[in-house]
Specification:
heterodimer; A: mainly alpha; 13 helices; B: alpha/beta; six-stranded mixed β-sheet; four-stranded mixed β-sheet; globular
Chain lengths: ~250, ~550
């Protein structure tokens, strides 16, 4: 089934779906479960995309959960069911806090699907287009998850998510900076993201009067990015910081 | 015509039918054939650029490559640009697309196809290009060898946070001028060096035309050409505003940030620098050929090459074609904009306008379904090595896209201004959806003889908010659709990362699936958060009619 998962990873869903269906019909119990998962997830993207296919996929995922909701396949199925509710429905029917994701976050926080669930729930709670809950409460709920992440990639994603939400809502600059620096420490391999985070750290640190942090971040940006439209603006800021530093001396 | 017997008529139709079938079969064969050459891997390249010099240059570099790679045969196929989009759709649907394809954001809809059907090149781009060995680029990651770092709309998918193509040329725009006509109408032998100089020169041309009852105009204008002239000025006087609108604290506005910040009240059609920008646009509009908004590039080209306009703003890559069509000497200069010492606008200007975000042309990527992906990537590495890109530039006459590649003599005056402040405000503030159409249909209120900045701004006050809200809502829906589309890829890459390398298909072993999963999860999170932010903003700031 590696070949089928490879096709899935590359979004060759038609070939993958066919391969999964074959194994799901004839394989051993474990193989059948994994293949049924693969068939359900590829069904979501088979062309043409129809509501019927999404519902069929959801039904297959529910079947997997009924057999066993807590093995690797069951956890993956629960996650996908939650995501179908969150992002496969139209905007007015989307459910920001599906029960599948809530139970994963509560009972399986030590698994990748539990932590993905925490991430997605946090995201949808922070940006819920309603007056309630108030912003402070949204950030408090997000903070409750911080110590539960064990996967460094997902912890980094959590920090970036909360940092950018702090910036979006113009709440606490120092908290936004803390999260950005924490994300940076965990490592950001994507070059474009790295450049953005370096600028954000510089901007926030500068606004908070933490000039050494700001200058270091701007310098790092200039070192790593030779072909970026922001070079002049970052140089201006660095020059202003260095000029101010010289004045203080 | 004599009446045919029944048998003759039958024979006639049979022959006609056979001829039709033969023609259809040949067309299909030409469309989809892969040359079968023993012991050779055939790489097919398809592109839709209308300029023949691109094909000539590509073929020449391909010939060079084949000399050192005798096991590879490269076939180059230029498709008329008018049907290129349709060509891509049918080729992808039929799984018969060439191995290497041109991605160009000029073709609306191509970027969606790119994200779906093209191979992400990021992992190769993060490594040095082996064909730069022996040069100062030997240790530089391939992506960083490009003058724009491949941060252009065609090569980089902001939805997927992945790179899909490599650029072969930088497409600056320049004002081409008729040397003889310039001297005849203004007495000058050299073009203006400054923005005020350009205004002065344009007035001189108009004065000459009036005095001599001549139809000569300063600019052979058309929609796109006029936009080239207007954009740097508008961007220059809005440089400070650009930074003030940076709510994300990245010093980078994307095309949706203008609408979002408008809805949040950060700018309006009363903002002084926005009004100043429109005043400049209006003035520059008066120097275009009357009725320019209804004209296209071919009309403007004709006007210029027929000697009826002193100047024509066009892509620098058109220089060779213009020179071949004109019977007069042609010069070129960079489009000037107001500078920090401008007597009227200095307070809102920070410095020069960067051309880094200019449209990069001839971006080539790899078909995800290609049976020869490694070979295709290798050829792209060769083509976009310093040596390959120099050769491409020399033959095409275009500006090279690779750092340090020699600029051909014909393109010397076209070198881009790389260091400066962002120059995308004008091009991006009206988005790419319905608002762009609204802008175009009301632009006459700004640039027509009876128009004014006030009339235009008053109209846009009524329309911009509601129209952009609709565009933003649509964009959020599309983004969320792309988010959902990533779930199988994320699940697939996670499954692959869990398996020991030796159990994976051979082609999947030399790849970090953990990194792939990391990249996909990060890209999905970013896009999903952006869509949710947009929905939140639309809820919080419902658009009203006037600002």
């Amino acid at each position: 089934m590696s070949a089928a998962w490879l096709d899935t990873a590359q979004l060759f869903v038609s070939d993958a779906h066919e391969a999964f269906e074959k194994v799901a019909a004839t394989g051993t119990t474990d193989m059948r479960r994994e293949a049924a998962l693969g068939a359900a997830v590829t069904l979501l993207e088979l062309s043409p995309h129809t509501r019927g296919r999404v519902e069929k996929s959801a039904a297959a995922l529910r079947g997997l959960c009924e057999e066993n909701a807590n093995d690797a396949t069951g956890l993956a199925a629960r996650y996908l069911l939650g995501r179908i509710r969150q992002v496969y429905n139209s905007e007015d029917q989307a459910e920001p806090f599906p029960p599948e994701l809530r139970s994963l976050a509560k009972d399986h926080a030590d698994t990748i699907f539990g932590q993905l669930a925490m991430l997605k729930l946090t995201m949808h709670r922070l940006y819920l287009p309603q007056s309630e809950p108030p912003l402070a409460e949204r950030f408090q709920s997000a903070a409750a998850y911080e110590t539960k992440f064990t996967d460094p990639v997902l912890l980094r994603e959590y920090h970036l998510l909360v940092a950018n939400a702090q910036i979006f809502f113009e709440t606490t600059e120092s908290e936004a900076l803390r999260h950005l620096r924490a994300a940076w420490e965990l490592g950001i391999p994507n070059a474009v993201m790295r450049a953005d985070v370096l600028v954000q750290i510089g901007e926030l640190a500068h606004a908070l009067g933490r000039n050494q942090v700001a200058a270091a971040s701007y310098r790092r940006f200039l070192d790593e990015n030779n072909h970026d439209e922001r070079i002049m603006m970052v140089r201006d800021r660095l020059a202003a910081l260095e000029g101010a530093h010289a004045k203080d001396e | 015509m004599p009446k045919m017997s029944r048998s003759l008529r039958r024979m006639f139709w049979i022959v006609l039918g056979l001829l039709f079938l033969l023609a259809a079969a040949r067309a299909l064969w030409l469309q989809t054939r892969t040359a079968i050459v023993p012991d050779k891997t055939v790489l097919r390249i398809g592109f839709g650029d209308s300029r023949p010099m691109g094909e000539t240059a590509l073929r020449a570099v391909a010939q060079d490559y084949m000399r050192t790679h005798p096991d590879i045969l490269i076939e180059v196929q230029r498709v008329p640009h008018t049907i290129y989009l349709q060509y891509l759709r049918t080729q992808f649907a039929g799984e018969t697309a060439p191995d290497i394809l041109q991605i160009s954001s000029w073709f609306r809809g191509v970027t969606e196809m790119r994200d779906r059907y093209m191979l992400p090149l990021t992992r190769w781009l993060n490594e040095p290009n082996p064909y730069n060995a022996g040069t100062d680029l030997a240790k530089t990651p391939w992506r960083e060898t490009f003058l724009d770092g491949l941060s252009n709309e065609a090569a980089y998918s902001s939805d997927l946070r992945d790179y899909f193509g490599v650029s072969m040329m930088i497409a600056t725009v320049r004002i081409f001028y008729n040397k003889e006509l310039l001297q005849q109408t203004t007495g000058r032998t050299a073009p203006p060096k400054s923005f005020r100089g350009l205004l002065e020169m344009s007035r001189q041309v108009q004065d000459y035309a009036r005095a001599h009852d001549h139809r000569i105009v300063p600019f052979a204008g058309c929609q796109l050409s006029a936009a080239f002239v207007m954009s740097p000025s508008f961007c220059a006087v809005n440089q400070k505003l650009y930074q003030q609108l940076d709510r994300r604290r990245t010093l980078w506005l994307d095309q949706w940030d203008y609408a979002k910040t408008y809805l949040q009240g950060d700018w309006s059609f009363s903002t002084p620098s926005i009004r100043a920008g429109y005043d400049l646009v209006r003035e520059l509009g008066t120097y275009q050929k009357p009725g320019f908004m209804q004209l296209d590039g071919r009309d403007a080209n004709f006007e210029f090459t027929q000697g009826r306009a002193v100047m024509f703003a066009a892509m620098a890559g058109d220089a060779v074609a213009l020179e071949s069509q004109a019977s007069f000497g042609i010069g070129a200069f960079a489009i000037p904009a107001p500078t920090v010492d401008d007597p009227e606008y200095s307070s809102s200007i920070l410095g020069p306008v960067s051309e880094l975000a200019n449209l990069t042309g001839f971006v080539l990527g790899v078909n995800k379904l290609s049976a020869h992906r490694d070979e295709a990537v290798d050829f792209l590495r060769y083509l976009s090595s310093r040596h390959g890109n120099e050769q491409f530039a020399r033959i095409s006459g275009w500006l090279p896209a690779v750092e340090g590649a020699e600029v051909p003599p014909v393109a010397q005056s076209h070198r881009p201004v790389l260091l400066g402040y962002p120059g995308r405000f004008w091009a991006e503030m009206h988005g790419g959806g319905d608002e762009k159409a609204v802008f175009k249909s009301n632009f006459h209120l700004l640039v027509s003889h009876e128009g004014s900045t006030e009339a235009f701004c008053q109209r846009m006050r009524q329309l911009y908010g509601p129209t952009m809200s609709g565009d933003l809502a649509r964009h959020a829906r599309e983004t969320m659709r792309n988010v959902s589309r990533q779930e199988p890829a994320i699940m697939g890459s996670w499954e692959m990362s869990r398996r020991p390398a030796e159990t994976l298909p051979a082609m999947a072993r030399n790849r970090s699936w953990t990194d792939d999963h990391d990249q996909l999860v990060g890209a999905q999170n970013r896009s999903e958060a952006e869509a949710l932010q947009t929905r939140y903003l639309l809820w919080r700031h419902p658009a009203e009619g006037a600002d």
